[in-house]
Amino acid sequence: MDSPELYHVKQQFTLGAYKSLVDLTLPDPDSPDYTPTLVYQARAHLALDSPSAAYSQIPKDTENVALKAVAALAHFVEAESDSSKEAERDAALEELRDLCVEIEGDDADATEWEKGTARVLAGTAFARAGEIEEALETLGAGTDTRNLEAVGYTVQIYLSINRPDLACKEFERAKRWAEDDLLLQQIEASIGLATGRDAYADAHAYFTEQLANPSLTSPRLLTARGVARLLRGEVQAAKSDLEEAQTQMGGKPDAETLGAQVVAAGLGSAKSADADQLFSQLSTEHPGFPLVLDIERKAHLFDELAAKFAVPPVAAA
Questions:
Q1: What pLDDT is stored for residue 309 in this prediction?
Q2: Which has the closest alpha carbon to 181: 148, 230, 132?
Q3: Are residues 87 and 178 in the same domain?
Q4: Are residues 121 and 31 part of one domain?
Q5: 70: helix, coil or strand?
Q6: Angle formed by the axes of helices 219-231 and 182-195, to 10°?
Q7: What residue ranges of the chain have pLDDT lower than 50?
Q8: Residue 38 falls within a domain, yes or no?
Q9: Is the pTM of this model over 0.85?
Q10: Are residues 35 and 134 in the same domain?
Q11: Please, which residues have CB within 8 angstroms of residue 249's CB and are 6 or more apart in sequence?
Protein backbone atom coordinates (compact mmCIF):
# COMPACT_ATOMS: atom_id res chain seq x y z
CA MET A 1 0.00 0.00 0.00
CA ASP A 2 1.45 3.36 -1.03
CA SER A 3 1.67 6.19 1.47
CA PRO A 4 -0.61 9.21 0.83
CA GLU A 5 2.45 11.22 -0.24
CA LEU A 6 3.60 8.63 -2.77
CA TYR A 7 0.05 8.20 -4.06
CA HIS A 8 -0.07 11.94 -4.77
CA VAL A 9 3.30 11.74 -6.58
CA LYS A 10 2.03 8.92 -8.80
CA GLN A 11 -1.18 10.86 -9.44
CA GLN A 12 0.81 13.91 -10.55
CA PHE A 13 2.91 11.82 -12.91
CA THR A 14 -0.05 9.94 -14.37
CA LEU A 15 -1.97 13.15 -15.05
CA GLY A 16 1.00 15.02 -16.53
CA ALA A 17 1.56 17.54 -13.72
CA TYR A 18 5.27 17.39 -14.41
CA LYS A 19 6.17 20.94 -13.40
CA SER A 20 4.70 20.45 -9.92
CA LEU A 21 6.48 17.13 -9.63
CA VAL A 22 9.97 18.43 -10.46
CA ASP A 23 9.53 21.22 -7.92
CA LEU A 24 8.62 18.75 -5.18
CA THR A 25 10.97 18.36 -2.22
CA LEU A 26 12.27 14.79 -2.03
CA PRO A 27 11.59 12.78 1.13
CA ASP A 28 14.39 11.73 3.47
CA PRO A 29 16.78 9.23 1.79
CA ASP A 30 15.94 6.70 4.52
CA SER A 31 12.22 6.88 3.71
CA PRO A 32 10.70 4.01 1.68
CA ASP A 33 9.16 6.73 -0.53
CA TYR A 34 12.55 8.19 -1.47
CA THR A 35 13.50 5.97 -4.43
CA PRO A 36 10.03 5.84 -6.05
CA THR A 37 9.65 9.62 -5.69
CA LEU A 38 13.12 10.18 -7.17
CA VAL A 39 12.25 7.90 -10.10
CA TYR A 40 9.00 9.74 -10.83
CA GLN A 41 10.70 13.11 -10.48
CA ALA A 42 13.48 12.16 -12.90
CA ARG A 43 10.88 10.85 -15.36
CA ALA A 44 9.02 14.14 -15.06
CA HIS A 45 12.22 15.94 -16.11
CA LEU A 46 12.38 13.63 -19.14
CA ALA A 47 8.75 14.42 -19.99
CA LEU A 48 9.69 18.11 -19.86
CA ASP A 49 12.50 17.39 -22.37
CA SER A 50 15.25 17.94 -19.83
CA PRO A 51 17.30 14.72 -19.85
CA SER A 52 20.35 16.37 -18.30
CA ALA A 53 18.28 17.40 -15.27
CA ALA A 54 16.96 13.84 -14.97
CA TYR A 55 20.42 12.31 -15.16
CA SER A 56 21.93 14.76 -12.68
CA GLN A 57 19.46 13.61 -10.00
CA ILE A 58 20.51 9.97 -10.09
CA PRO A 59 23.33 8.97 -7.68
CA LYS A 60 26.33 7.92 -9.74
CA ASP A 61 27.03 4.83 -7.61
CA THR A 62 23.45 3.55 -7.41
CA GLU A 63 22.79 -0.16 -7.75
CA ASN A 64 19.01 0.26 -7.84
CA VAL A 65 17.75 -1.10 -11.17
CA ALA A 66 14.93 1.46 -11.47
CA LEU A 67 17.34 4.37 -10.95
CA LYS A 68 19.88 2.83 -13.35
CA ALA A 69 17.12 2.47 -15.95
CA VAL A 70 16.13 6.14 -15.55
CA ALA A 71 19.74 7.21 -16.03
CA ALA A 72 20.10 5.03 -19.14
CA LEU A 73 16.86 6.38 -20.62
CA ALA A 74 18.05 9.94 -19.94
CA HIS A 75 21.27 9.20 -21.83
CA PHE A 76 19.26 7.75 -24.70
CA VAL A 77 16.89 10.73 -24.92
CA GLU A 78 19.80 13.17 -24.83
CA ALA A 79 21.54 11.36 -27.69
CA GLU A 80 18.60 10.31 -29.87
CA SER A 81 18.19 13.61 -31.73
CA ASP A 82 21.92 14.17 -32.30
CA SER A 83 23.39 12.15 -35.17
CA SER A 84 26.90 12.65 -33.77
CA LYS A 85 25.91 10.77 -30.60
CA GLU A 86 24.81 7.53 -32.22
CA ALA A 87 27.35 5.55 -30.19
CA GLU A 88 26.01 6.99 -26.92
CA ARG A 89 22.47 6.23 -28.04
CA ASP A 90 23.31 2.60 -28.83
CA ALA A 91 25.23 2.24 -25.57
CA ALA A 92 22.19 3.40 -23.60
CA LEU A 93 19.99 0.84 -25.38
CA GLU A 94 22.49 -1.92 -24.61
CA GLU A 95 22.58 -0.88 -20.96
CA LEU A 96 18.79 -1.16 -20.81
CA ARG A 97 18.92 -4.59 -22.47
CA ASP A 98 21.47 -5.71 -19.87
CA LEU A 99 19.24 -4.45 -17.08
CA CYS A 100 16.29 -6.43 -18.46
CA VAL A 101 18.43 -9.58 -18.37
CA GLU A 102 19.67 -8.74 -14.87
CA ILE A 103 16.18 -8.57 -13.41
CA GLU A 104 14.99 -11.88 -14.87
CA GLY A 105 14.27 -14.57 -12.30
CA ASP A 106 13.13 -14.55 -8.71
CA ASP A 107 16.65 -14.18 -7.30
CA ALA A 108 17.17 -10.66 -8.73
CA ASP A 109 18.03 -8.13 -6.03
CA ALA A 110 15.10 -5.82 -6.75
CA THR A 111 11.47 -5.38 -5.76
CA GLU A 112 8.68 -6.15 -8.21
CA TRP A 113 8.01 -2.41 -8.55
CA GLU A 114 11.66 -1.73 -9.40
CA LYS A 115 11.77 -4.54 -11.96
CA GLY A 116 8.50 -3.45 -13.52
CA THR A 117 9.67 0.16 -13.71
CA ALA A 118 12.93 -0.86 -15.36
CA ARG A 119 10.99 -2.81 -18.01
CA VAL A 120 8.70 0.15 -18.68
CA LEU A 121 11.65 2.52 -19.08
CA ALA A 122 13.47 0.06 -21.32
CA GLY A 123 10.34 -0.47 -23.41
CA THR A 124 10.00 3.30 -23.74
CA ALA A 125 13.51 3.59 -25.17
CA PHE A 126 13.07 0.62 -27.51
CA ALA A 127 9.82 2.06 -28.89
CA ARG A 128 11.39 5.47 -29.42
CA ALA A 129 14.26 3.77 -31.24
CA GLY A 130 11.77 2.09 -33.58
CA GLU A 131 12.31 -1.38 -32.08
CA ILE A 132 8.59 -2.01 -31.69
CA GLU A 133 8.69 -5.80 -31.31
CA GLU A 134 11.43 -5.58 -28.70
CA ALA A 135 9.48 -2.90 -26.85
CA LEU A 136 6.30 -4.99 -26.78
CA GLU A 137 8.15 -8.09 -25.62
CA THR A 138 9.89 -6.13 -22.87
CA LEU A 139 6.58 -4.68 -21.70
CA GLY A 140 4.97 -8.11 -21.59
CA ALA A 141 2.39 -7.53 -24.31
CA GLY A 142 -0.14 -10.33 -24.57
CA THR A 143 0.59 -11.63 -21.06
CA ASP A 144 -0.82 -11.06 -17.59
CA THR A 145 2.12 -8.83 -16.72
CA ARG A 146 0.26 -7.40 -13.69
CA ASN A 147 2.02 -4.09 -14.33
CA LEU A 148 -0.58 -1.49 -15.21
CA GLU A 149 1.96 1.06 -16.37
CA ALA A 150 3.41 -1.49 -18.79
CA VAL A 151 -0.12 -2.13 -20.06
CA GLY A 152 -0.65 1.60 -20.52
CA TYR A 153 2.50 1.99 -22.59
CA THR A 154 1.71 -1.15 -24.60
CA VAL A 155 -1.68 0.37 -25.44
CA GLN A 156 0.01 3.58 -26.56
CA ILE A 157 2.36 1.66 -28.84
CA TYR A 158 -0.52 -0.26 -30.42
CA LEU A 159 -2.47 2.96 -30.96
CA SER A 160 0.59 4.58 -32.54
CA ILE A 161 0.81 1.80 -35.15
CA ASN A 162 -2.94 1.87 -35.84
CA ARG A 163 -3.80 -1.36 -34.04
CA PRO A 164 -6.64 -0.28 -31.73
CA ASP A 165 -7.93 -3.86 -31.77
CA LEU A 166 -4.80 -5.07 -29.99
CA ALA A 167 -4.89 -2.06 -27.67
CA CYS A 168 -8.45 -2.99 -26.66
CA LYS A 169 -7.38 -6.60 -25.99
CA GLU A 170 -4.64 -5.38 -23.63
CA PHE A 171 -7.11 -3.15 -21.82
CA GLU A 172 -9.74 -5.88 -21.48
CA ARG A 173 -7.12 -8.31 -20.18
CA ALA A 174 -5.95 -5.77 -17.59
CA LYS A 175 -9.51 -5.17 -16.39
CA ARG A 176 -9.63 -8.75 -15.16
CA TRP A 177 -6.94 -8.15 -12.53
CA ALA A 178 -6.37 -4.41 -12.15
CA GLU A 179 -8.24 -2.22 -9.71
CA ASP A 180 -10.35 0.58 -11.16
CA ASP A 181 -7.70 3.18 -10.52
CA LEU A 182 -6.67 6.38 -12.26
CA LEU A 183 -4.26 4.81 -14.74
CA LEU A 184 -6.82 2.23 -15.86
CA GLN A 185 -9.31 5.03 -16.52
CA GLN A 186 -6.67 6.93 -18.47
CA ILE A 187 -5.92 3.90 -20.62
CA GLU A 188 -9.62 3.64 -21.42
CA ALA A 189 -9.75 7.36 -22.26
CA SER A 190 -6.78 6.99 -24.64
CA ILE A 191 -8.49 4.16 -26.47
CA GLY A 192 -11.68 6.22 -26.62
CA LEU A 193 -9.82 9.11 -28.26
CA ALA A 194 -8.28 6.81 -30.85
CA THR A 195 -11.42 4.86 -31.69
CA GLY A 196 -14.17 7.45 -31.25
CA ARG A 197 -16.06 5.13 -28.95
CA ASP A 198 -19.26 6.69 -27.51
CA ALA A 199 -18.62 9.80 -29.63
CA TYR A 200 -15.61 10.62 -27.42
CA ALA A 201 -17.97 11.22 -24.48
CA ASP A 202 -16.12 8.98 -22.00
CA ALA A 203 -12.70 10.47 -22.80
CA HIS A 204 -14.07 14.01 -22.55
CA ALA A 205 -15.73 13.20 -19.21
CA TYR A 206 -12.53 11.66 -17.83
CA PHE A 207 -10.36 14.68 -18.68
CA THR A 208 -13.00 17.10 -17.37
CA GLU A 209 -13.24 15.18 -14.09
CA GLN A 210 -9.47 15.25 -13.56
CA LEU A 211 -9.26 18.96 -14.40
CA ALA A 212 -11.70 19.62 -11.55
CA ASN A 213 -9.07 18.49 -9.03
CA PRO A 214 -8.16 21.69 -7.12
CA SER A 215 -4.77 20.31 -6.05
CA LEU A 216 -3.59 19.64 -9.61
CA THR A 217 -2.36 21.86 -12.43
CA SER A 218 -1.69 19.97 -15.65
CA PRO A 219 -1.50 21.65 -19.06
CA ARG A 220 -1.38 18.19 -20.63
CA LEU A 221 -4.82 17.41 -19.29
CA LEU A 222 -6.05 20.62 -20.89
CA THR A 223 -4.46 19.60 -24.18
CA ALA A 224 -6.06 16.17 -23.96
CA ARG A 225 -9.49 17.64 -23.33
CA GLY A 226 -8.88 20.14 -26.14
CA VAL A 227 -8.23 17.23 -28.51
CA ALA A 228 -11.39 15.48 -27.31
CA ARG A 229 -13.37 18.65 -27.93
CA LEU A 230 -11.90 19.01 -31.43
CA LEU A 231 -12.99 15.47 -32.20
CA ARG A 232 -16.48 16.31 -30.90
CA GLY A 233 -16.64 19.38 -33.15
CA GLU A 234 -16.43 21.85 -30.24
CA VAL A 235 -13.78 24.00 -31.90
CA GLN A 236 -14.05 27.19 -29.84
CA ALA A 237 -14.06 25.30 -26.54
CA ALA A 238 -11.05 23.30 -27.77
CA LYS A 239 -9.17 26.49 -28.65
CA SER A 240 -9.84 27.82 -25.17
CA ASP A 241 -8.36 24.68 -23.59
CA LEU A 242 -5.31 24.80 -25.84
CA GLU A 243 -4.69 28.49 -25.16
CA GLU A 244 -4.90 27.86 -21.41
CA ALA A 245 -2.52 24.91 -21.76
CA GLN A 246 -0.04 27.14 -23.58
CA THR A 247 -0.33 29.75 -20.83
CA GLN A 248 0.38 27.13 -18.17
CA MET A 249 3.45 26.09 -20.16
CA GLY A 250 4.85 29.58 -19.88
CA GLY A 251 3.73 30.60 -23.37
CA LYS A 252 5.71 27.88 -25.16
CA PRO A 253 3.45 24.95 -26.11
CA ASP A 254 4.80 21.44 -26.33
CA ALA A 255 4.55 19.42 -29.54
CA GLU A 256 1.16 17.89 -28.74
CA THR A 257 -0.43 21.22 -27.83
CA LEU A 258 1.03 22.96 -30.86
CA GLY A 259 -0.11 20.12 -33.14
CA ALA A 260 -3.64 20.40 -31.78
CA GLN A 261 -3.53 24.18 -32.30
CA VAL A 262 -2.60 23.62 -35.96
CA VAL A 263 -5.67 21.44 -36.44
CA ALA A 264 -7.93 23.85 -34.53
CA ALA A 265 -6.74 26.80 -36.61
CA GLY A 266 -7.64 24.97 -39.80
CA LEU A 267 -11.21 24.32 -38.70
CA GLY A 268 -14.25 26.55 -38.56
CA SER A 269 -13.94 30.15 -39.66
CA ALA A 270 -10.25 30.52 -38.78
CA LYS A 271 -7.95 32.07 -41.37
CA SER A 272 -5.77 29.57 -43.18
CA ALA A 273 -2.80 31.89 -42.59
CA ASP A 274 -3.03 31.13 -38.85
CA ALA A 275 -2.85 27.40 -39.52
CA ASP A 276 0.07 27.90 -41.93
CA GLN A 277 1.99 29.94 -39.37
CA LEU A 278 1.40 27.41 -36.59
CA PHE A 279 2.34 24.51 -38.86
CA SER A 280 5.56 26.29 -39.83
CA GLN A 281 6.37 26.64 -36.13
CA LEU A 282 5.53 22.98 -35.49
CA SER A 283 7.67 21.70 -38.38
CA THR A 284 10.60 23.90 -37.31
CA GLU A 285 10.52 23.08 -33.59
CA HIS A 286 9.33 19.46 -33.84
CA PRO A 287 10.32 18.07 -37.26
CA GLY A 288 9.67 14.49 -36.15
CA PHE A 289 6.11 15.11 -34.98
CA PRO A 290 3.67 12.63 -36.66
CA LEU A 291 1.52 15.37 -38.22
CA VAL A 292 4.60 16.98 -39.79
CA LEU A 293 5.90 13.68 -41.15
CA ASP A 294 2.48 12.73 -42.53
CA ILE A 295 2.03 16.01 -44.40
CA GLU A 296 5.59 15.82 -45.74
CA ARG A 297 4.95 12.31 -47.08
CA LYS A 298 1.72 13.39 -48.74
CA ALA A 299 3.34 16.50 -50.24
CA HIS A 300 6.14 14.36 -51.66
CA LEU A 301 3.64 11.88 -53.10
CA PHE A 302 1.66 14.71 -54.67
CA ASP A 303 4.81 16.11 -56.31
CA GLU A 304 5.68 12.68 -57.68
CA LEU A 305 2.23 12.20 -59.17
CA ALA A 306 2.13 15.75 -60.52
CA ALA A 307 5.46 15.20 -62.30
CA LYS A 308 4.00 12.18 -64.09
CA PHE A 309 0.90 14.02 -65.25
CA ALA A 310 1.13 15.28 -68.81
CA VAL A 311 -1.03 18.31 -69.58
CA PRO A 312 -2.79 17.69 -72.92
CA PRO A 313 -2.40 20.34 -75.62
CA VAL A 314 -5.10 22.94 -75.95
CA ALA A 315 -7.52 21.97 -78.69
CA ALA A 316 -7.30 24.21 -81.78
CA ALA A 317 -10.35 26.35 -82.53
A1: 87
A2: 148
A3: no
A4: yes
A5: helix
A6: 30
A7: none
A8: yes
A9: yes
A10: yes
A11: 219, 257
